Amino acid sequence: MLEEKMAGGLDGGAVPGAKSRKYVPQINSKLRHHILKVPVAARNASGIVVNGSRIKSLVFTTDIAIIRNCNADAVLAVYPFTPQPTISSSVLRYSSLPVFCGVGGGTTQGIRTLQLAWDAETEGAMGVVVNAPIGNEDVRRIADYIDIPLVVTVVSEKTDIAARLAAGASILNVSAAFRTPEVVRAIRRDFPDVPIIATGGGTEESILRTVEAGANAISYTPPSTKELFAAMMSDYRNREEP
Q: How far is CA 132 from CA 20, 135, 158, in A?
């Protein structure tokens, strides 16, 4: 049972599956106490240390308002359009968190992806992310050209992980929808030490399953602005009139 695994958490909540931890004081401002919190189960992940910073959770968004009001450790700035330096630059400039920038790998490949990766590094990205269709030769070119981690997305256990790592992938980003824990577990059996980011779903239970499968860090898709506004307006409507 999930309730049997609850213990004191780092952010004042309970962390499913965690051992008891030391009390951590919390300081909140009067105006910024209402932030978007990643499910606390993500704190069970071991994390991935990138240049001294430990990353356990990444918020999957390019929305600056969410990025500035979220307790994730980093940002996974990947979006379903052709990567554009203007978008990456805007996220990097205004983010309060380290950013992993999407630089293509699907319809955008070759020299353009290489240039986008270089631009992201010079703008201050913590790492760059390429999508699953990218070829190993492009992975190799990018890895040889940049000095920040190259995150390669994996959507199936059919991916030749050894070839991806040999080409220069620093971190795997497993995104296999409801099968993500299964794919993570399959990779972890053969590659016990490879750093893995994985989608965790939206619940404590689904995130815990992904962590227990072997993910080192969790990518969390936040509610949409519409959903967040709906909850806020519902709260306003339910308040008693003065």
A: 38, 8, 12
Q: Quick: pLDDT tens for 5-58.
A: 434 444 445 555 555 668 989 888 877 767 899 999 999 999 999 999 999 999
pLDDT of 239 strictly over 90: no
DSSP state of 27: -
Three-class SS state of 42: helix
C-alpha 241: how far from its chain's center?
A: 41
Extents of the domains making up the chain: 37-223
Distance CA 7, CA 14 (A): 5
Q: Supply the pLDDT for residue 1.
A: 39
Share of the chain above pLDDT 90, in %: 73
CA distances from 57 to 37, 186, 215, 221, 224 (A): 10, 21, 11, 11, 18
CATH, domain 37-223, list 3.30.1300.10, 3.30.420.270, 3.40.50.880, 3.20.20.60: 3.20.20.60
CA max distance for the chain: 66
| pLDDT of 4 over the 50 cut | no
The pLDDT, as a whole number, for residue 221 is 93
Q: How many CB atoms lie within 10 A of CB 64?
A: 15
Cβ atoms of 66 and 36 closer than 8 Å:
yes
3-state SS, 139-199, equals HHHHHHHCCCCEEEEECCCCCCHHHHHHHCCCEEEECCHHHHHHHHHHHHHHCCCCCEEEE
